[in-house]
Each structure stands twice: as structure tokens, then as C-alpha cells.
Design goal:
The complex is a heterodimer.
Chain A: H1 2-32, H2 39-51, H3 59-88, H4 90-112, E1 127-130, E2 133-136, H5 137-158, H6 163-170, H7 172-177, H8 182-208, H9 214-229, H10 234-254, H11 260-274
Antiparallel strand pairs in A: 1-2
Chain B: E1 2-12, E2 15-26, E3 30-34, H1 41-49, E4 54-61, E5 64-65, H2 72-77, E6 79-82, H3 94-104, H4 110-120, H5 122-126, H6 137-149, E7 155-159, H7 167-182, E8 186-191, H8 194-200, E9 203-208, E10 211-217, H9 218-222, H10 225-232
Parallel strand pairs in B: 3-8, 3-9, 6-7, 7-8
Antiparallel strand pairs in B: 1-2, 1-4, 4-5, 9-10
Chain lengths: 288, 235
């Protein structure tokens, strides 16, 4: 029982981080039909900005820089690169996002080195004992910060102002002709996905240590989480990611810690074969 | 205040579909654009509304040429569209569909406008909290028209209203359109069903093969051989 609870905590922590990436996928996919595989590299970039670069600045300033750059990188890459490729062929834009991820990876490797860098948690080293369950301040922060962001996004989308975004999700062309500035809303959503990715990187780094190559794994696992829940809906993509985190933790705890990554991709393949729309989702309409 | 479309050409890629179309709609009149399937009516309308970028020509409305502007600028300038196939926002409730339309053009008095639209189409009031995707075809058409009207446009553009609509519902919706025109609204109607369109409009244009063949009052058009020829074969 104690082990179970401990694994639930571990699963919620990793699942929340996957969820931050998965939210980015879901938001961008629903708005544009585009799948941004650079989100993982953007998370990695966010981690390096918060922990490695600018060592002289106070921690909170570096976190702010990381979030701002996260938003800017996301918005600029859409408006300067992906958008133009997507007009011809969405697949070209998706492949381009892989290429951009490699560019980010190399920039970081050349400027900060290819070795793993430990990242100290901005939330300190405190450890709490809740009954039989041990939870670190950082783990607690991961769950709380993610929960706040997920709730904030869902509440925003559900609000009266958010209805314009939901209208765009449902039918972008009609939304535009009714006077909704869809290009501007899409830019805002890219900024949101960039901030979420940066937060994922900042939260993941103290757990994983930083490496230029951590991005690809985050990108793919976040994608599996989003697919598990259904890419076309934000709430289910988050739920799918948390489910994936729990599955991974249970598998690592009860079966084999060495094969936990293999499990993630096995889940991916199974979902794509059995229910491509996601376990929780409906069939998402592809809109370009 | 007049919509003046001048020598508008619209194509997909390098293929021109609509060539040098010119037409006018003044506020307070209903004008129809008729023609057989594939004549280029919908493409013309997409060009006017900015959903397809025109290769040449002007779309002048209240002194501004909107041809090169993004689609959303028309709605802000007082042109509202009822798209072909309704295109209501399915996951949004009936009320949300209307609210979103008012807010999109920065409209005030959201509640009052929605009330007025629901007075016009009482069915929508009964269904106000339902997702629009669950409405019947006729109700969706009413919602699509209400969604355009709550924007308080000066020009209403309606694409293929009769498509998939029961005659009774069409009559009801047509009655609403007549009332709007007498209230001073301009209406541009694109219709495959020429007889229905001409019963609602005072002037019309006939399109075929991507060009305007002729224009005039509906009485004049009714006597044109070309109209009869296109619709009913050789006379």
C-alpha cells in the first residue's frame, strides 16, 4: 500500500510534466492541425536558460527569461517558418519542427557542452513525510504548478472570452469570416504552448539533470501522452499524459525500471493500432 | 452605402475560376447572384469575403477596398456572412454561437442583441443551452442567420440558403430576410435555386462559366432567354 502511494506520487509528477508538453501539442493541433515536435527541445532550452546560462542573475530572473524566450521562440518559429510550410503541406511543417529541434540541440551542445548538468530545484531540498509517503518540495511544486496551469487554461478556454478560441477550434474559416482574428489567436496559443514547454523544462531538469538530448525524449513521450488521451482535445490530452505517467511509475515499480521507456512506446504503438483517436478522445478532425 | 465589386478575378493556384466579375449591392435592397452549379458563385463570394485571395479587382465597401485585406476585416466593417452549409460552431451552445459573433466585432449590449435575435427565431430560445451541433438543419440555418444578424451588419451575404432546407423553413427564413431589407439592410444572396432567390430579391445577376452574363431587375431577368436556357434547357 505504501509502495502504491509512493508510485502514485511519482507517476503524478512525471505525468504532469508530460502533460505540459501534451497540452502544447493539443492546443496547436486543434487550432492549426500542426504537430510541433520541437516542443521537447523548447523545454530543454527552457531548462538551460533557467539553470545554466546567466549564472550571475538571481534564480527568479532566469526563470522569467526562460518563460519569455519560450513564448518568443514558439511564436517566431510559427510565424517565420512552420506557417509558410504548412500552407503547402502540413507534413513538411511537422518535419521542419524535427529539424528545428535538432538545431536547438546543437546550439545548446556547442554553447553549454554535451555533458549532463545537474540542476538544483528552485523550490529547495526540503522533503515532507505524509504518512508513509515521502514527497520532496520539488515534486510537490511540479504537481501544484502544473495543476494551476492546466486549470487556468481550461478555465480560460471555457470562459466567454475563450469562446472565440473554441469557435476557432471548431471551424477556423467561419470564425475568421465572423471577424475573429484567428491569426492573432493562433499566435497567442503558440506563446502559451511555448511557456508550457519552458515550464516543463524548468520542472523536469532537477529530476532528470539537463542534457541537450533530453528534448527528443520529452517531445516523444509528451506526444504519446497526448495521443493516449486524444490529440484533438486539451482536457483529454492532459488526462492521457497523467495516465501515462502513472502507468510508467507502476511499471517501473512492479515490473522493471529498466524497461520503462520501452513501455511508453509499446503503449504508443498499441494506442495507434487499437484507437488512433485516443482512449478518451473522439476522432479528431484534421484541419489545415 | 454600396458594395461595389469591380472586375474581381479569383482562382485557386494558377487556375482562374472567376473572371472580371462586377456587381453592386446598395443598402436597403436585396440582390441575388444566380447561376447553375459550378458557375463560380461561391468562388465569387469567397473572393468578396476574403476567404480566397482575389488575383485582380476591387471589393469596395463604404469607401474602402477590402480586396487585399484579411477576411476578418469585413465583419468589423459591417458585412456579415451566412455561409453555405450553415457552419455553426457545433461544440458551442446556441447562446455561445451568438455571443462569440457579437464579441468578434466588438459589439456592445450583447444580451439585448441576442434577445432580439431570439425574438425573431423563437426556436433558438428553446434551444439556447444546447450544443449547436445537435440542432436540426433548419434550426442551424436560423442560428447561422441569427449569428450574422447579432453583428448588426449593414450588408448581409447569404450563401446557398435553400440548400438542404425544407420549403416551409425556407419560407419562414425568407420572410425574415424580407423584413430585414425593409428595415434598411442590404442583402447579397447567392442561390442555385433562381426561382426562390428571385422571389426574395429586387435585382439579380446571372453567372455562368465564371463570368457575369447579365444583370437587371428580377422582372427583366425572368424574361431573359439566357436564364431560361441555363436553367430549363433550350426553349
Amino acid at each position: 500500500m505504501d509502495k502504491l502511494l509512493q508510485l502514485v506520487v511519482a507517476g503524478l509528477v512525471t505525468g504532469s510534466i508530460y502533460g505540459l508538453i501534451a497540452t502544447g501539442y493539443a492546443v496547436l493541433y486543434t487550432a492549426t492541425g500542426f504537430v510541433n515536435f520541437a516542443l521537447g527541445a523548447q523545454a530543454m532550452l527552457g531548462g538551460y536558460l533557467a539553470y545554466v546560462y546567466f549564472p550571475a542573475l538571481p534564480q527568479w530572473v532566469r526563470i522569467v527569461i526562460s518563460l519569455v524566450v519560450g513564448a518568443v521562440v514558439s511564436v517566431v518559429s510559427w510565424n517565420l517558418l512552420y506557417k509558410w510550410a504548412a500552407r503547402r503541406a502540413m507534413l513538411a511543417a511537422v518535419i521542419m519542427s524535427f529539424a528545428l529541434a535538432i538545431v536547438f540541440e546543437e546550439i545548446i551542445r556547442l554553447s553549454a557542452g554535451g555533458l549532463n548538468v545537474p540542476a538544483p530545484s528552485p523550490f529547495g531540498r526540503a522533503v515532507f513525510q505524509l504518512g508513509a509517503v515521502t514527497i520532496s518540495a520539488h515534486q510537490l511544486a511540479v504537481v501544484v504548478v502544473s495543476a494551476v496551469l492546466f486549470t487556468g487554461l481550461v478555465v480560460m478556454l471555457g470562459s466567454k472570452r475563450g469562446a472565440a478560441v473554441r469557435a476557432m477550434f471548431a471551424d477556423a474559416e467561419t470564425a475568421e469570416v465572423l471577424g475573429i482574428r484567428t491569426a492573432r489567436l493562433t499566435t497567442i496559443l503558440f506563446a502559451v504552448s511555448g511557456v508550457f514547454a519552458a515550464v516543463a523544462g524548468i520542472l523536469a531538469a532537477p529530476l532528470l539533470t539537463l542534457s541537450p538530448y533530453m528534448g527528443l525524449n520529452l517531445a516523444l513521450i509528451g506526444f504519446v501522452g497526448a495521443i493516449l488521451g486524444g490529440l484533438g482535445r486539451i482536457g483529454t490530452a492532459i488526462a492521457g499524459s497523467i495516465l501515462l505517467g502513472l502507468l510508467e511509475a507502476f511499471f517501473a515499480g512492479y515490473v522493471s525500471a529498466d524497461f520503462r521507456t520501452a513501455l511508453v512506446y509499446a503503449v504508443f504503438v498499441l494506442v495507434l493500432v487499437i484507437r488512433p483517436a485516443g482512449l478518451l478522445g473522439r476522432v479528431a478532425k484534421v484541419k489545415v | 452605402m454600396t458594395l461595389e465589386v469591380e472586375n474581381l478575378s479569383v482562382g485557386y493556384g494558377d487556375v482562374p475560376v472567376v473572371r472580371e466579375v462586377s456587381l453592386e449591392v446598395a443598402v436597403g435592397e436585396a440582390v441575388c447572384l444566380v447561376g447553375p452549379n459550378g458557375a463560380g458563385k461561391t468562388t465569387t463570394l469567397r473572393g468578396i469575403m476574403g476567404l480566397s485571395r482575389p488575383t485582380a479587382g476591387a471589393v469596395r465597401w463604404e469607401g474602402t477596398d477590402h480586396a487585399g485585406r484579411p477576411a476578418w476585416s469585413r465583419a468589423h466593417a459591417g458585412i456579415a456572412l451566412v455561409p453555405e452549409g450553415r457552419h455553426v460552431f457545433g461544440p458551442l451552445s446556441v447562446v455561445e454561437n451568438l455571443e462569440v459573433a457579437v464579441r468578434a466585432v466588438g459589439g456592445r449590449r450583447v444580451g439585448a442583441r441576442i434577445d432580439a435575435a431570439m425574438d425573431r427565431f423563437p426556436r433558438l430560445r428553446e434551444r439556447r443551452a444546447q450544443p449547436a451541433g445537435l440542432l436540426s438543419g433548419g434550426e442551424q440555418q436560423m442560428l447561422a442567420i441569427a449569428r450574422a444578424l447579432v453583428q448588426e451588419p449593414r450588408l448581409l451575404v447569404i450563401d446557398e440558403m435553400s440548400l438542404g432546407l425544407a420549403p416551409v423553413v425556407y419560407e419562414q427564413v425568407g420572410e425574415a430576410v424580407r423584413g430585414l431589407v425593409s428595415d434598411g439592410l442590404g442583402v447579397l444572396m447567392v442561390e442555385q435555386n433562381a426561382a426562390l432567390a428571385m422571389s426574395l430579391c429586387s435585382r439579380g445577376y446571372l453567372m455562368s462559366g465564371g463570368r457575369i452574363l447579365l444583370g437587371g431587375t428580377v422582372e427583366e431577368m425572368a424574361h431573359e432567354d439566357a436564364v431560361a436556357h441555363l436553367y430549363f434547357g433550350a426553349v
